[in-house]
Amino acid sequence: MRLDELLRLTPDSWALLPLWLARAFVFAFGLLWGSFLNVVIYRLPRDMSVVRPGSHCPGCGKPIAGYDNIPVLTYVILRGRSRCCGTKISPRYPLVELMGGMLSLAVFEVLVLSLPGATPAHRALAIYGADFTLCLGLVAAAFIDAEFMILPDSITIGGAVLGVATASLRDLGMKDALIGATVGFVGLWFPFTFLYKGLLGRTGMGLGDAKLIGLAGAWFGWPGAVVALFAGAFQGTIATGIAYVAGWEPSLPSGVREDIAQLEADAAAGDEEAKKALAEDPLTEEEDAFILRFFRRLFGIPEPEPELDLEGPPTEEEHAEMTKPPRARIPFGPFLILAILELLFAGDWLKSRIGPFLWPVL
User: Fold this and answer.
1) Domain locations in the chain?
2) Taking the model in full, what pTM does it have?
């Protein structure tokens, strides 16, 4: 069969193929991209190339052979350790690979197989490619934000551009996608930033979050941006409330600790910019959690205790409090990303549940 004949196939013609075979293929395809996501998550926030060099052992740096780079299976066979030196491998790696496979299968099941029977194969493939690319970018952004408390522009802005470029695949229209991106980025960022400042005395919303909401608007229109904002905030507030009741205090993410250690080393070497950054809060530029703090205030969930204001030498208890590791801020990005994925797979249901509470905004 020639390529042009293959591209003219419709979903009705796919019934000639075993559905289990198609599902197995898209799942395996997703596993492979999940493996690549691990490279992106590790290297992108460290300004490293995601292409070169190839994968290597995190313990001894030895290149990883192809037969030791099979998604999920290698981790199970080697029992979570490197073959070359026995270094323990983080379970995050097979988790991300499985997420890639599951999201690939979900896009196929929910967004491709539900297409009308007369949909040309090339359009179905384009829908799968665009939606799965969005999923991959969001997973990478969630893990990077959780570890480094940053949202890379290459994912947020790149995802918004992809959303505008593929708007016709969702029957949205490029104009509506552009309006949605603008409303999400500017129309929601400015009001919430100044509302937060009026209530708490400081600006709060990071540009990374605003760009992510703009991405939601580019994919689902401005109502989708509003729903994503409130759904993400609601879920984040519930999670932080549960953490508070359980008495759990998150530790400072490893990526942030790396950045602080590098700043300290640069400051010791005489770097004035590093000294200035350390004199301030190294996390002040990362205000991803502003909506979570806003909703905690709204629902009466206590804030972390303020810093001690001591007069005279500190007591033993005060010294212990002063030397405790800094309290970590819970980033808003992963909760917002969860809401965007929910919009992708269950947008109509989500809007029907949240829309009445936002009326007449939507």
Assistant:
1) 1-148, 173-250+287-306+315-362
2) 0.78
